[in-house]
Amino acid sequence: MIVGSNLEKVINSGNFAVTGELGPPKSADIETLKHHAEEMRHYVDAYNITDNQTAIVRTSSIACGAVLVQMGLEPIIQITVRDRNRVCIQSDVLGASALGIKNVLCLSGDHQQFGNEPGAKGVYDIDSMQLIKGLKDMRDDGVFMGGEELEAPVSYYLGAVENPFADPFEYRVDRLEKKVNAGVSFIQTQCIFDLERFKKWMELVRERGLHKKVAILGGVTPIKSLGAARYMKNNVSGITIPDEVIDRIKGAEKKKEEGLKIAIETIEQLKEIEGVAGAHVMAIAWEEKVPEIVERAGLYPRPNV
Amino acid sequence: MIVGERKPFEQIEEIVDSNSKILVLGCGTCVTVCLAGGQKEAEELAASLRIKCKKDNKQAEVDALTIERQCEYEFVDQVKSRLDEYEIIISLACGVGVQTITERYPSLLVMPGLNTKFMGYPLEQGVWSERCLGCGDCVLHLTRGICPVTRCAKSILNGPCGGSAEGKCELSPEIDCAWHLIHERLSNLGRLKELETIQPPKDWSSSHHGGPRTIVREDVRLDSGE
Q: Where along chain A do its domains lie?
């Protein structure tokens, strides 16, 4: 056991883990975020809090994470390398730990040009790989990225993301391995709509035995409408939605129910794939459906570990 | 080479302001080659300014002159007396040229007529592309000739990020993913294994982040007083 977060315990117990996702608002009023967190209580093992996702200014992930801790819930704070240099990131991670946050997810972050401050200077002092390695060394060796020693130990459960749908496909597993070597314990993938490609990727993962070294949580997003599906397909960087999925929504009488069904079926399939340790449910602007998805996918109640 | 792009005419007009003795100063090196600030462009801009002044019934004298390089005292000194004749000099050199003349002759008013864009080369006639950020610590040996610091929008050293699709950057289908190119190149060279190494954080102090840079070479400095 590294830090003993709930997520770590669920993963280590061999149970199929479930994480949810909360996006902070473009204001300091986080009542809605708290409300969604409350709705998902007992249905997810931990909550991702996004870090200015799609480069849009929002309340900080660490601040929202601290509020969740106060509510007795477990956040996974996302940290991107877009907006902060190594001085700030290390400082923020120490601060997050001091606030009781136990899970950290390392990402590159969407480029600032996608957001509402397209003229911002992108920082990119380090990349996501260096972030993982740096935070691992901080935790395991007690040293900052620059080599100086910490005055006291710090601990957190480290995760990262991987996108099996990005290119070059054959390099995606190499890159996962690199992240494992850099020090991550869990991986959340980009939203899975193309299950065949995901399965092919998992095959390569298993060939290298990587599923035994890192817990892979498959990303699942319920599609709320045909428009949402098309928007994701065309506008969200790193997401692939096959035409069959679009057609299925298009042909359905009850489009929302079809979207939920696809998500639930995806989770059910993920449970069957060797080496998949859990599902990460990203119900963007549809957070209230998470309990239903979890329940219908046969993942409720959550294990008490 | 340094690639520049002329400022919009309206902005140049604003910079010229009420000055009536104007020199458009071209530069014969990089910006001539990239068709932004050589003799031809200097003459064109001077002509445009003359027409505009005439249209606005403004009395003004606008000339054009081009020197070999605005970034070396040697070439600037040769035309000092000409430069003295003008109230304002619109330099079509890169930012280095503007500053070299300003530092050499603080009494002159030298203003930019060009936006200095980047270090790059022409991919084809009329298309220039950035290739070097001047980070001060070249990594091209690690990637066999493709710069991730410059060509990756996130300057990732352990790429590609999750936004790479079909060989293109998440920013635009017009931009090649540098890491896709690197992967392809190393794959062709049978050197993919090299990508397994986790490249450590870059020391940015060799770049502009360490403050303005100066190189001192004692071996080539001129001895003084000996």
A: 6-294
